[in-house]
Fold this sequence. Notes:
- Helices cover 2% and strands 43% of the residues.
- It has 1 helix and 10 strands; from the N terminus they run H-E-E-E-E-E-E-E-E-E-E.
Amino acid sequence: MRTSLSTTTPRIDWSYEFYNFATSEGTDKDRRKDPTFITLNPQDNRVFYLSGREQGYASVMKFQKRSGKMDWWAQFTQLSSIRAVAELPDDENFYGCGDWWENEDSVDPTGDTAQYSAGIFKMNADGRVKWYLTLSGSNPTTDMGKQDRCYGLSVDTRSGYITALM
């Protein structure tokens, strides 16, 4: 949807809907759709990225702004959700982080036995993942299992450092 700042009537150029072909197929985990971020590509103002969760896994999709055409869809089978993204004007890459809910199929989400591993990735504008890093471990001060989740991300290409909020 786009609108001029001087008008109160928005104009919808196109819309995109994610839906299931059959409600009897798959599990609730597979049917969950959690769009999290819409980010513009700083090097190409004709496209944007939609990131979040689709079909049970963290996903990044690249769309054409004018037509709504999806160029590609990248899915991370060892990442449940994307919680932070970073794009830089002088870098063609898309950075993201989130978490992998390792025992999602067998654990009550309201309980305290869920186990998570954090994941951080770098991908290029064509959707190819350049690297993926998993961070996990046990908390020595408690008997709870893995509880590593990534909630924030910053990238400094000059120094080569990536900072993650865990």
